[in-house]
TrEMBL record:
GO terms for biological process: platelet-derived growth factor receptor signaling pathway; positive regulation of cell division; positive regulation of cell migration; positive regulation of cell population proliferation; positive regulation of ERK1 and ERK2 cascade; positive regulation of phosphatidylinositol 3-kinase/protein kinase B signal transduction. It is found in: Secreted. This is Platelet-derived growth factor C. It comes from the Eukaryota. Keywords: Cleavage on pair of basic residues, Developmental protein, Disulfide bond, Glycoprotein, Growth factor, Mitogen, Secreted, Signal.
Length: 329
């Protein structure tokens, strides 16, 4: 409803606009190409004051050499129009990889300052969009700098320490591990064993003028078990009773038993990826099984019931998984 017409026409016009060069910045009608030779800043118009309405600006940052990578760091002063239903629809800034068009992140509001971003190649795009309603302040300011890759390893991607990742990216990465040990190795690969020991060391707490010793024990809470319970009961094959007439779409017959138990996927998918807006518990492995039942059918001419034992095929879900089904699907 708030989407800008200028944004939708950006891609089609961006390569045809006339360009000019000034102080290392090539400007076109919709895109500014910045030659990155050192440190610099990209900021919303009028930062740190209220940015203008109905604005679309794209900066293409290009490092001087193919082996260079570009790091982006957001100024703590950050504020754009708030999200709607946790989605940045109206005013936002986003960072994109030019190759493949992969969006590394889109941000708005003022509650959280985006974390550092590092390009996978020697280019990176920054896009700022504002609509005609509710401009905010102070906008945003992004500091960019060069990360030099060693010439002997030109293909190696820039590795970002786990602590430098944004909250969303770090949360999603941690959620993918099965054990506490894997989590600690990911967060601190050089000292994970020390951190594991620190987690379970006894702690002292103060209550008024008295002291008591509270000992943490591995036997009190097993975090690995807690995670396993969530995995087992969130989205799994479970027993459902189905009506044979409805399941087989047979309105001409009567079955006994009229209902049978089958395995079907069930459970919620609350722990899907944060960028998935429609997550469903879906089957990933399906088997057809045959069940012997009594089938009754009226004989032609109304001469009683025909009774036969017959095998009916029913679909069973053997494996389930939370699957993202966005509108684009």
């Amino acid at each position: 409803m708030h989407e800008s017409v200028a944004e939708s026409s950006l891609v089609s016009k961006i390569h045809h606009a006339s360009t000019k060069q000034q102080n290392g910045v090539h400007e076109s009608q919709h895109e500014k190409v910045v030659s990155v030779t050192g440190d610099g800043i990209i900021q919303s118009p009028d930062f740190p004051n209220t940015y203008p309405r109905n604005t679309v600006i794209v900066w293409r940052l290009v490092a001087v050499t193919e082996s260079s990578r570009i790091q982006l760091t957001f100024d703590p002063r950050f504020g754009l129009e708030d999200a709607e239903n946790s989605i940045c629809k109206y005013d936002y800034v986003e960072v994109e990889e030019p190759v493949g068009g992969i969006v590394l992140g889109r941000w708005c509001g003022s509650e959280m300052v985006p974390g550092p971003q590092v390009s996978k190649g020697n280019q990176i795009l920054i896009r700022f969009v504002s609509d005609e309603y509710f401009p905010s302040d102070p906008g945003f300011c992004i500091h960019y700098s060069l990360l030099q890759q060693r010439q002997s390893e030109p293909e190696a991607p820039a590795v970002m320490p786990a602590w430098m990742q944004g909250v969303d990216a770090l949360s999603e990465a941690v959620a993918g591990f099965s054990t506490m040990e894997e989590v600690m190795k990911y967060l601190e690969p050089d000292r994970w064993q020390v951190d594991m020991e620190d987690l379970y060391k006894p702690t002292w707490q103060v209550v008024g003028k008295s002291f008591f010793h509270q000992k943490k024990s591995r036997g009190v809470v097993d975090l690995n078990l807690l995670r396993e319970e969530v995995r087992l009961y969130s989205c799994t094959p479970r027993n459902f009773s189905v009506s044979l007439r409805e399941e087989l779409k047979r309105t001409d017959a009567i079955f006994w038993p009229s209902c049978l138990l089958v395995k079907r996927c069930g459970g919620n998918c609350a722990c899907c990826s944060h960028n998935c807006y429609d997550c469903q518990c879906s089957p990933t492995k399906v088997a057809k099984k045959y069940h012997e039942v009594l089938m009754l059918k009226h004989r032609a001419g109304g001469r009683g019931l025909q009774k036969t034992l017959t095998d009916v095929p029913l679909e069973h879900h053997e494996e389930c998984s939370c699957v993202c089904k966005n509108d684009s699907d």
